[in-house]
Write a structure and sequence with these properties.
This protein has about 280 residues and is of the alpha/beta class. The protein is built from nine helices and 15 strands. It has three domains: about 5-85 and about 170-180, D-Maltodextrin-Binding Protein, domain 2 (3-Layer(aba) Sandwich); about 85-165, D-Maltodextrin-Binding Protein, domain 2 (3-Layer(aba) Sandwich), CATH 3.40.190.10; about 190-275, ACT domain (Alpha-Beta Plaits, 2-Layer Sandwich), CATH 3.30.70.260. Strands 1, 2, 3, 4, 5 and 11 form a six-stranded mixed β-sheet that branches. Strands 8-7-9-6-10 form a five-stranded mixed β-sheet. It has a four-stranded antiparallel β-sheet with strand order 13-14-12-15. Helix 1 (about 15-25) links the parallel strand 1 and strand 2 (about 30). The chain starts with a strand and ends in a 9-residue tail after the last strand.
Length: about 280
């Protein structure tokens, strides 16, 4: 198994920045066209790890990521939080007054909506942030710029006409590092799982109560449709603690009794919000 890390996108993607933030600049990387190919790469052991974007502080959950996690036997190895800064990039010689349209991934366009509106740009959805920079560098288009990272601009020879153009300063994206084995315990840990309730009154309340009565802090809960069972949602849950902790073991044992379905995604070293300025 090659000792490298898969990410979705082309070089300069925010996912690549996140993995280098976690593993260091010298790690070998393996770009994947989409999330399906990312899971394929790690499932067939072409890579040792993969980094998966799961949630943005402004745009919410990456739904496909959670669907793929639910169908996978991979384990979460670590949590990574990246402070995302967007830049307006254009070919050399352009200036901001000459720009008429701006391309980027729909989430990046949404995160810079005020900047786009204030400058009178026409937003054009693109398949990828760094990919939009790569494509514009390969085929420069008059009066066109892209929104991507400053790193993407440097990689593809584009000038940064404006930086930190995101509408709000707390634009953070959360990633999971995925692998095949359980990771070592960290100083601060979270546990992630997915479960479904039985079809009876107060079923969700009873399940969550097992965590509350043991003082376990829930940091995320989100419902998703269960594809093979219409109108029977599953719930993705994160809480502070490690499955080896006594309180966690008790809560999980009771959850197994109350829920109709439980799948552990992993206990892993996590990031304290205050350590990244959240």
């Amino acid at each position: 198994m090659p000792d490298c890390v898969a990410f979705q996108g082309v070089h300069g993607a925010y996912s690549e920045q996140a993995l280098k933030q976690h593993f260091g600049d010298t790690v070998d990387v393996f770009p994947c066209d989409d999330l399906n190919k990312l899971f394929e790469a790690i499932n067939n052991r072409s890579v040792r790890y993969a980094i998966l974007p799961v949630e943005n502080a402004l745009a919410g959950a990456v739904q496909q990521a959670y669907e793929l996690l639910m169908d996978s036997d991979l384990r979460i190895q670590a949590e990574v939080i990246l402070h995302v800064h967007h830049a307006l990039l254009a070919p050399t010689g352009a200036n901001i007054k000459s720009i008429k349209q701006v391309r980027s991934h729909p989430q990046a366009l949404a995160q810079c909506a005020n900047f786009i509106r204030r400058n009178g740009f026409t937003p054009v959805p693109w398949y990828d942030t760094a990919g939009s920079a790569q494509d514009l560098a390969a085929e420069p288009t008059e009066a066109t710029a892209v929104i991507a990272s400053e790193l993407a601009g440097k990689l593809y020879g584009l000038d940064a006409l404006a930086t930190q153009i995101e509408d709000v300063p707390f634009n953070f994206t959360r990633f999971f590092v995925l692998g095949h084995d359980d990771p070592p315990r960290g100083e601060f840990n979270k546990t992630s799982l997915v479960f479904a309730t039985r079809n009876r009154p107060a079923a969700l309340y009873e399940c969550l109560g097992e965590f509350a009565t043991r003082g376990l802090n829930l940091t995320k809960i989100e419902s998703r449709p269960r594809r093979n069972r219409p109108w029977e949602p599953v719930f993705f849950l994160d809480f502070e603690g490690h499955w080896q902790d006594t309180a966690c073991q008790e809560a999980l044992a009771r959850l197994l009794q109350r829920a109709s379905f439980v799948k552990m995604l992993g206990s892993y070293p996590a990031v304290r919000a205050e350590s990244v300025g959240m």
